[in-house]
């Protein structure tokens, strides 16, 4: 076990856990990388630390400064904890559909939370990033983290997530699956794994079915923190700089109901309580794994824990209000036909 001089040292080094019971029809081994074991509770600790260190080195963030970010929660949380330990003030702009628990968590770290209506198009005055940029301009000594376009985000995964997976599998990983939000995880870890394996590792994105990354029309979906809803005709011109689509070999387009169904099964049959985007990613990993043989090793990123979503994906009331299958009726062994 590591001993660290501050919270930053405890970021990364997360375990892989094999899926054993939700894998009917799968011959490949499927391992989930448990990113909720980061100190801030998600994969975004990695990007948050990478962006903070890069900004300090570049002189963009100085003692007593303010960290501003637009985030659906986890990047804000990662920044809030790491910045608190470094003495910075933190302001996070979140869309109002973010769970109440995540907002309370941000405030618990001392961050200031600004809510916007969310799902506004790029450039709209109420759009998340626009609000964050306005606050950055207004606050003296403020620095905007900008996870969507900050090269330190994918770089953090190139330097930590990718090498960890390579080491943990002894170089035997054949497929890497991750959801795409900013694209930082799949881009950085994917680039590293491709390089390390001489191009052999296949990199598969997991995307909500209506998100534009996988070719959807941008209509609303309910699994938060993954996908993008840019206008489908111009989306490719506006991809975040953290997203390098050329790293991907394919994208699995996952309906919310399929993501939520596997999420419930993974909690009840594997003992892993994960967030909604983990459901999206694991559904994609299982679809991929069903096409593979016994020598294949699939690694899938589980970005955060289900604890922050008890009132959403794990609530019969919430699921019922949106017409999703209830947790009590999700015991069918198959996924996909939802
Ligand atoms: N899932 C969750 C829960 C997240 O917070 C994020 C980050 N927005 C992602 C998935 C996507 O990760 P990335 O931004 O690296 O694409």
TrEMBL record:
<protein>
    <submittedName>
        <fullName>Pyridoxal-phosphate dependent enzyme</fullName>
    </submittedName>
</protein>
<dbReference type="GO" id="GO:0016765">
    <property type="term" value="F:transferase activity, transferring alkyl or aryl (other than methyl) groups"/>
</dbReference>
<dbReference type="GO" id="GO:0006535">
    <property type="term" value="P:cysteine biosynthetic process from serine"/>
</dbReference>
<keyword id="KW-0663">Pyridoxal phosphate</keyword>
<feature type="domain" description="Tryptophan synthase beta chain-like PALP">
    <location>
        <begin position="9"/>
        <end position="304"/>
    </location>
</feature>
<comment type="similarity">
    <text>Belongs to the cysteine synthase/cystathionine beta-synthase family.</text>
</comment>
């Amino acid at each position: 076990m590591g001993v660290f001089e501050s919270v930053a040292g405890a970021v990364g080094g997360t375990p892989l856990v094999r899926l054993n019971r939700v894998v009917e029809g799968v011959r490949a081994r499927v391992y989930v990388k448990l990113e909720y074991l980061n100190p801030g509770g998600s994969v975004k600790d990695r990007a948050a630390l990478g962006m903070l260190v890069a900004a300090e080195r570049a002189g963009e963030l100085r003692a007593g400064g303010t960290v501003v970010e637009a985030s659906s929660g986890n990047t804000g949380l990662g920044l809030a904890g790491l910045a608190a330990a470094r003495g910075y003030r933190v302001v996070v702009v979140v869309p109002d559909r973010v769970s109440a628990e995540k907002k309370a968590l941000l405030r618990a770290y001392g961050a200031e939370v600004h809510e916007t209506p969310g799902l506004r198009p790029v450039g709209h005055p109420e759009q998340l990033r626009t609000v964050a940029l306005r606050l950055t301009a207004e606050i003296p000594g403020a620095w905007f983290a900008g996870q969507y376009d900050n090269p330190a985000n994918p770089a953090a995964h190139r330097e930590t997530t990718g090498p960890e997976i390579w080491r943990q599998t002894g170089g035997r990983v054949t497929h890497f699956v991750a959801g795409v939000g900013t694209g930082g995880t799949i881009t950085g870890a994917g680039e590293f794994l491709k390089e390390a394996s001489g191009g052999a590792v296949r990199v598969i994105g997991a995307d909500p079915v209506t998100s534009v990354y996988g070719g959807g029309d941008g209509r609303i979906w309910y699994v938060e923190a993954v996908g993008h809803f840019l206008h489908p005709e111009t989306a490719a011109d506006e991809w975040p700089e953290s997203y390098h689509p050329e790293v991907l070999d394919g994208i699995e387009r996952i309906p919310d109901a399929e993501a939520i169904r596997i999420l419930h099964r993974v909690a009840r049959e594997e003992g892993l309580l994960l967030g909604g985007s983990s459901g999206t990613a694991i559904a994609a990993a299982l679809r991929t794994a069903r096409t593979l043989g016994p020598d294949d090793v699939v690694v899938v990123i589980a970005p955060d824990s289900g604890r922050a979503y008890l009132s959403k994906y794990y609530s019969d009331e919430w699921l019922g209000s949106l017409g999703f299958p209830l947790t009590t009726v999700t015991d069918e062994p198959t996924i996909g036909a939802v």
